[in-house]
Structure formats: C-alpha cells, structure tokens
Specification:
The protein has 280 residues and is α+β, with helices and mostly antiparallel strands. It contains 9 helices and 12 strands. A hairpin with a 2-residue loop joins β11 and β12. The relative contact order is 0.11.
C-alpha cells in the first residue's frame, strides 16, 4: 500500500478530495477525468489491468475494483476476449432533463438524434390493429419503419402505425430526420392527449442485430406505445425495439404509487392480447 501511494504522488495525479485515501476511488476519478478530457474516446479501449497496475503502481485487486465500478456505472464496458472500452453514453428516457415524446420528441432530448426511413407502406388494419387505433377492420394504415441513431450510434428500430385518414400525405411528409411529433403539432395541429406505454424485455434476432450493430442475443427493450389526442382519438401505435445498453428508463413514483415524471402521470400497462398479436 505505501508503494502504491508513492507511485501516485510521483505521477502527480489529481484525485477527488472525498476519496478518503481509498486508492480504487482515486483510480476511478483519474479514469473518469481521462474520459472527460478525451484521452480515451467513446468506443476506445483503455489500458489493460496489467498496464494500469504498472502505470499506477497499484495491485491487481485495486485496479479491478476501480474498473468494475466504472463498468457498473456505465462508463466502461467489457468485451470478452477484447478488453475494456469506453461505453457509448446512455440515452435516459423519462428523466426530467430529457423527457420529450420518445425518439421523435420536440423537447431538449431531441438534440443529436437522427432518423433514417427503412420502409414505408400502406396496409389494411387487421382486427387487433383496428382495435388499438380505433378504426374499422380493413381501413388503410400507414406503416413506417425507422432506424433511430443517437450521436452516430444506432439506438432503436421504430415501427409506427397510424390511421391514414388522420394523416393525409404522411408518407410524403415524413422523411429522414423529420420528427413525427413535430408534424402532429405543427402540420396536422392535433393537440396531444394521454400516452399508454408497455415495456418488455427481449433479445436481438434476425436483422435487428445488423441494424442496431449489436450481436444476436444482445438485450433489448420492446416499448409499445399508443398516443391519443386531446379528444381521446388514437393518433398512433408504435413498437420500438431498443438496445438496452444504449437506453435507461427513469421513473419518479409519488406517494400514491403513481409514476410521475415532470408533473405528468404515466400508466405502464401490460396487455397480454396485444403482446401476443404483435409478437415478433
């Protein structure tokens, strides 16, 4: 231990004054600062445990604990057989800072988000989709599939279903990097109502891994959402397939057990019939 302290002093590293002499916390602070300073960029491999031991004169146990803490914080990620890398920052949805309207929001969380249209089509509503959208079986439905990219990293595949009668010319208007919710607000001038959200877990399969640039079997969130306008008419149904390593969901719960974010109530419901109908 004295040798480790001596090595740290010789390297003239600046440490958090709140570490109370715990060397693994000091190393965490040093690595965090190196990431903030750009010494290690996003996706770049940091030195190995052995290299960190040699650089800082610390034991393997000390280095391992510091690195593991940063992995658990989401700043670093370990890839078996390759090393430890600076993790892609997570997009926190539902927090007071970033709460907008999902990936197409018009709020502050929309900065740095890019959308690429993968598919557009006109379909006929089956019984389940007609029930969700509040339309008749066989009515025209616009289907739009988009890839959502956050800071150059694929984050989600968004599958959007809307009643064609409510959104004339949508297929022509909704282009790459055009916000669907901004179109609702500014072009169609519908007033937003309540949202209904269902959050499930899954793993990447098929073309999902290729589009999201993650291995098959990687953890995913499946977010199903329906949005109503102020008069209760359903505006859209969407199913978003989201990389779980790219997104965190944040919820504030009040004393009555209601989920309240930024003064807005959310009802997270699970509809077994809907989940079976739209299962991949």
């Amino acid at each position: 231990m004295p040798a480790e302290r001596s090595a740290l002093r010789q390297n003239r590293h600046t440490f958090d004054s709140n570490t109370n002499g715990l060397l693994y916390l000091q190393l965490e602070t040093e690595l965090k600062q190196a990431i903030l300073d750009g010494k290690y960029g996003v996706g770049e491999r940091i030195p190995t445990e052995q290299e960190l031991c040699q650089s800082f004169g610390m034991s393997r146990i000390t280095v391992r604990r510091a690195v593991q803490d940063l992995v658990e914080e989401g700043l670093l990620s370990k890839v078996q057989g390759r090393g430890t890398f600076v993790a892609v920052p997570k997009h926190v949805l539902g927090s007071s800072e970033s709460l907008g309207r999902g990936f197409g929001g018009t709020g502050p969380g929309d900065h740095g988000t890019h959308r690429a249209i993968l598919e557009k089509s006109i379909e006929h509503a089956n019984k389940e989709l007609a029930g969700i959208l509040g339309i008749s079986v066989g009515d025209d439905v616009f289907y739009i599939r988009r890839l959502i990219v956050e800071e150059e990293y694929p984050m989600a595949i968004d599958n959007l279903f809307v009643a064609a009668a409510l959104f004339p010319d949508l297929l022509a208007l909704l282009l790459d990097d055009v916000s669907f919710y901004r179109l609702i607000d500014e072009h169609y001038q519908y007033e937003f109502g309540n949202e209904s959200l269902t959050l499930d877990a899954s793993t990447a399969r098929g073309d999902e891994g290729q589009l999201l640039q993650c291995p098959t079997g990687s953890p995913l969130f499946i977010l199903r959402k329906s949005m109503a306008r102020a008069d209760g008419r359903i505006l859209h149904y969407s199913k978003s397939i989201i990389r779980a390593d790219r997104v965190s969901y944040h919820f504030d719960v009040n004393r009555d057990g209601r989920i309240v974010n930024r003064g807005k109530d959310f009802a997270l419901t699970v509809d077994d019939e809907e989940r079976q109908s739209f299962k991949r």
